[in-house]
């Protein structure tokens, strides 16, 4: 009986470790979902390895435990690779950004989301799958008179960018080959300091190779926007995904010290961050906080503050 239990633990642990480890051989899109959960899976594999060793002391259990700990440690290293230096809390923020995928059939919570947006104090707001806010747009425009999306620049209401300040040359672009109008590009002048804003909504990474093509499009667009830059939105994958890491290294993008988990909402802080706020020097993130109320969405929203270095 002990041998059977040990065998079950060992087989399951081996399968999990094999799936996670394949990222070091080839970025296979069908496994990208598991790459985002590398930390979670590695910790689970370590726990299973310890259980196996308790049942039966055998060298293979110690081997899988060692591999699990290595994968977990490298997962932590990868999440810390792009962290920007901390900003003094007393330093005033240049602006505040709210980014939130509200889910396109979440009409019952549209008024509550609009109330939250107005009360947030954000200078710029990115709303993805924004159809539930279309009826709330007239009162949102009293606080945010400048916008693109939901009838301006595109007929659909997938992406909505609201701003308290004028949007300079706002435009909407396609990402990849699957969906249209999933990227908005604009510039906002904050008292003489112009900042570029990109609001992106990427495909789920296991939909063939479309996610990688969208990352390639972003890799081409970002260099055409010199100066401070914000890239925010729903990437449908964590920063551990190989293609996201490729983009961040290539374009010098940075994150806050700890990206809040935004999905699945039932997991709370134990989920993964698939919604991101990235910045490019000389712009730097002062803070990123999760909006604790999901307002019926399957994502949590993010509220971020930024400063610009001299």
TrEMBL record:
Which regions span the lipid bilayer?
33-54, 59-77
Q: Indicate what this protein is called per its UniProt record.
A: Endonuclease
**What keywords appear on the UniProt entry?**
Endonuclease, Exonuclease, Hydrolase, Membrane, Nuclease, Transmembrane, Transmembrane helix
Please give one Pfam family short name: Exo_endo_phos
Return the Gene3D superfamilies for the record: Endonuclease/exonuclease/phosphatase (3.60.10.10)
What are the residue boundaries of the Endonuclease/exonuclease/phosphatase domain, all occurrences included? 98-293
SUPFAM superfamilies membership: DNase I-like (SSF56219)
Lineage, top ranks: Bacteria, Pseudomonadati, Pseudomonadota, Alphaproteobacteria, Hyphomicrobiales
Extract the GO molecular function terms from the UniProt entry: endonuclease activity; exonuclease activity
């Amino acid at each position: 009986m002990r041998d059977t239990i040990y065998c079950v633990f060992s087989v399951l642990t081996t399968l999990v470790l094999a799936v996670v480890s394949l990222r070091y051989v080839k970025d296979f899109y069908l496994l990208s979902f598991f790459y985002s959960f590398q930390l979670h899976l590695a910790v689970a594999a370590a726990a299973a390895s310890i259980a196996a060793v308790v049942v039966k002391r055998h060298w293979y259990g110690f081997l899988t435990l060692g591999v699990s700990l290595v994968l977990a440690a490298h997962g932590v290293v990868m999440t810390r690779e792009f962290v920007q230096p901390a900003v003094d809390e007393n330093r005033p923020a240049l602006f505040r950004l709210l980014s939130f995928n509200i889910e396109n059939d979440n009409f019952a919570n549209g008024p509550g989301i609009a109330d939250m947006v107005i009360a947030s104090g954000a200078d710029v707001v990115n709303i993805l799958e924004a159809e539930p806010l279309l009826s709330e747009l007239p009162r949102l425009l009293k606080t945010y008179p400048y916008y693109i999306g939901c009838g301006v620049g595109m007929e659909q209401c997938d992406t909505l960018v609201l701003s308290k300040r004028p949007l300079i040359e706002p435009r909407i672009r396609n990402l990849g080959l699957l969906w249209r109008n999933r990227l908005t590009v604009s510039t906002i002048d904050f008292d003489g300091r112009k900042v570029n804003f990109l609001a992106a909504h990427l495909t789920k990474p296991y939909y063939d190779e479309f996610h990688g093509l969208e990352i390639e499009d972003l890799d081409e667009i970002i260099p055409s926007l010199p100066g401070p830059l914000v890239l925010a939105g729903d990437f449908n994958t964590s920063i551990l995904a190989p293609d996201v890491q490729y983009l961040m290294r290539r374009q010098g993008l940075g994150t806050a010290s700890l990206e809040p988990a935004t999905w699945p909402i039932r997991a709370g802080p134990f989920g993964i961050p698939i919604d991101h706020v990235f910045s490019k020097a000389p712009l730097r993130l002062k803070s990123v906080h999760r909006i604790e109320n999901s307002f019926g969405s399957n994502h949590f929203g993010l509220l971020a503050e930024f400063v610009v270095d001299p």
